[in-house]
Design a protein that fits this description.
Layout (H helix, E strand, L loop, with lengths): L2 E6 L9 E6 L5 E4 L6 E6 L3 H6 L16 E4 L5 E6 L5 E6 L5 H12 L9 E6 L4 E7 L9 H7 L6
Antiparallel strand pairs: 1-2, 2-3, 3-4, 4-5, 6-7, 6-8, 8-9
Length: 160
């Protein structure tokens, strides 16, 4: 699969470090914001009947004039998290359920683990009604997500 990966501006919170990947063959697109948790899927529909006949090949549904059929999915998300490991690496994701006290306590426990760098880990909460982001736990550092030249020009805008 040939794809292009880049950073774009998040449609929801306007953070310029939103991950974006485009499949050059199918024009499918995926985006995920590490700040607010916004997610976008723009996918070509699969032809399940043809794929059942030949599982080794991916068949995409086509219109009568031979163009791919696409669907846009923007699942509801409630925030984002990043768990940074002291030895490098880590994981981030979108929060797919409302953030409760139980969820906050769960992340607090994770942030206390020996291998977790709590200074660079965070949990955010997106308030869709107000269009506002809240840092619930930890510290969001935009430099972690942006290319060097990008982070220098917008750093002051994202201090929280």
């Amino acid at each position: 699969m040939a794809s292009v990966q880049r950073h774009i501006e998040c449609k929801r919170c306007k953070f310029k470090g939103c991950f974006n990947e485009i499949n050059c063959k199918t024009c499918e697109e995926y985006a995920q914001c590490p700040k607010c948790g916004y997610v976008l899927y723009f996918v070509a529909l699969r032809d399940r009947k043809k794929m059942a006949e030949n599982p080794a090949t991916t068949y995409l549904k086509l219109t009568k004039d031979g163009k791919y059929i696409y669907r846009l999915y923007e699942p509801k998300t409630y925030g984002a998290y990043h768990i940074k490991h002291k030895r490098g690496g880590g994981r981030f994701g979108s929060v797919k359920r409302p953030i409760t006290e139980r969820a906050i306590n769960y992340f607090k426990e994770i942030f206390r683990e020996d291998e977790v760098d709590s200074e660079l880990s965070y949990l955010t909460k997106w308030d869709g009604e107000k269009g506002k982001l809240e840092i619930v736990l930890g510290n969001f550092c935009p430099d972690m997500w942006l290319e060097e030249e990008e982070s220098e020009e917008i750093y002051d805008m994202w201090l929280v």
